[in-house]
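for the writeup, i need someone to sanity check this before i put it in the appendix. the sequnce is what the collaborator sent (i think, or maybe the updated version? ugh). structure was predicted straight from it, no edits. if anything looks off just tell me and ill rerun, i have time this weekend
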Amino acid sequence: MAGTSVAYKCLNCGGPLTFQPGKPTVTCEYCDTEFEVATLEKMYAKQEELAAKAQEAKEAKWKTDEAGTEWSVDEAQLMKAFTCSACGAEIVCDENTMATECVYCGNPTMLPHRFEGMLKPDLIIPFKKTKEEAVAALKQFYEGKKLLPDAFTANNRIEAIQGMYVPFWLFDSSAGGRGVYNTTSSLVFDDGDEVVTQTSHFQCVRAGEAEFEMIPVDGSTKMDDQFMESIEPFDYSELVPFSTAYLASYLADKYDVDAEASVPRANARIDNSIAAELEKTVGPQYNTCITESCDCYENEGKVQYAMVPVWILTTQFEGKPYTFMMNGQTGKFVGSLPIDKSKLHKYQLMAFALAAVLTFAILYFVL
């Protein structure tokens, strides 16, 4: 996040600057370098502008109270929610689902309670990928994994894949930032007596603004954030107004992180994007580039509540759970896999033996 104040520091050593009464300059207390007031005003004008914007952004707030709407009485009566007695996950489904299997731990669960206590989503991305496609993607995910235990694929319950709508908060924002980068550029030449490397040092300053639409933050602590970000992006051009009809034969996860609590993650994703784009502009003409500082700000704006489609499989192997997720719109697949330690040891021995043979061959030909 950008600071809301500006510290005037020496451009040479970074020490504090002091205005000396009666002199037309500002002096560094540490290296005694003097700067013209007009020079400093020009140098720090951008920082002052950024600080002012940061202060305005700090005083503003995301419109989190506008995300989602209340369910009608008829809609609420058609929905049910249950809490898994094994792992505590809270799942939403339609009125026709009387029993299901928890997608997080595989626990069979009856659904005795009516849906309550959740905002109605604004938008939804309907499923495009089928269960059959998810099963095929899982089998393909196994292929080529030489360290995968044979028993894992032989005994895996691949038919236990469940379609799930996951709650997301989508943040819109205009944002900006200013980065300072210490760079070097080296020139190597032969002066006739020796090879000389001449290194020049530069300080590069970059600033810019950008518009962000629908920065996604999942609203469920039960969904692994790393997995969810790994199956992104979703194509938000295919968002449609929410209807309970899309939930038919699928489950829907009930959010347990509201829009307000999701703001820090949204801000972090925006800041990381701004910082990355600013650094890209420094250019390939420099040999090294070290970030001295990068201050970002967000003009907090609209927030929408949406549901996105995910295929989920949680399976057990030797007492340990393994989770796989597939983007139900694009088919992007991620997951964690066990390692057969005996196979790992075998390949390590083979690699060691090969390295030994190559070393012996090299020594033989050298000698």
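Confidence is low (pLDDT under 50) at residues 1-6, 110-115. Residues 23 and 346 are 77 Å apart (CA to CA).
thx in advance!!
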